[in-house]
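task queued by scheduler; priority normal; single chain, no ligands, no partner chains; default sampling; output format set to structure tokens
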Amino acid sequence: MDTASTGAYDGVRTAPRALATEAVHAGRDDLARQGLHAPPIDLSTTYPSYDSRAEAARIDAFAGDGADLAGPPVYARLGNPTVARFETALARLEGTETAVAFASGMAALSAVLLALPVATGPRHVVAVRPLYGCSDHLLTAGLLGTEVTWTDPDGIAGALRPDTGLVLVESPANPTLAEVDLRAVARACGPVPLLADNTFATPVLQRPAEQGARLVLHSATKYLGGHGDVLAGVVACDEEFAGRLRRIRFATGGVLHPLAGYLLLRGLSTLPVRVRAASANAAELARRLAADPRVARVRYPRLGGAMVAFEVHGDPHEVISRVRLVTPAVSLGSVDTLIQHPASISHRIVDADDRRGAGVTDRLLRLSVGLEDVDDLWADLDRALGAPRARQGAKELREAVR
């Protein structure tokens, strides 16, 4: 039985609960006492208060350490009850003290970078490629005053400096599905916080905090929402760092809308079922692709998951143009299957040499496998891949003879 956390609910310590149980019940523990079954959606932007002295004290407390405000809400940029339910649930699934939600995954990463201590120069970050293309660009371009040292996992310890504020890895990585040993990386970081992007694995397959990561990042747009209809990001972490993130969120306004918080909480309830079913489909497609002569290479994580990366011998753009059941689109983690060409879209913003050096080749395709029947998915991919190589070669020979 996978256990998510022990947790103290309303001050009462309970026995560990399985991840599937937490996914359904976390963030909803108080509903029955309120006579509710479905979580409510609080759309208020502001809240009435007749005790301004008490409000002043609470604002002072928030400004000091970013702690969650005790008592009723004040203003939506400080916090929202519906979003807080999602944060509570995600923290329980990841096994961290708390979580802080944002309007997108990039807003969440930006908040982490802004929350790093500043010494005399730029905030120094050590990072391992590949990362999601926009994460790579955010670090490389220095848009938030960062200086990045790129290295491989074995070089992390040697890349650390006295002013290093963060080590950033993504495992499995976007889009190559490269994996790193998170425990070994955490040891190499020493006292420097490790941020692990867990978007592809989700807490169903991997809980980085248990392996030494201080911060766990999700583009919640993907598997946590799971239906392609919500944009969000979240960082699961300890309470001290969460306080920094809340202050950044309040100051910059990258808040998550309550309706998105509601959809994410609903998405978590089916997360284990969706991830495991999609992973079974992905494993089967990876097997069939690996045996296909039209495919040069297949990459599928050791820990499993619903993502498959593969390189074709032919033109990857032709494959994209020929799918009919599979949707050619960016993003991932939805109930339907998506395919995209990373070098053209998600990682286009990364320098071409850096992109190829990280394994993002021009023939690489990234497949986010959904919940359709696997035979229907294969029929679509088989058609999109085109004629078998032997027939292609014969055609090319006939054309050459002409």
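post-processing summary
- Residues 319 and 385 are 5 Å apart (CA to CA).
- The two ends are 65 Å apart (CA to CA).
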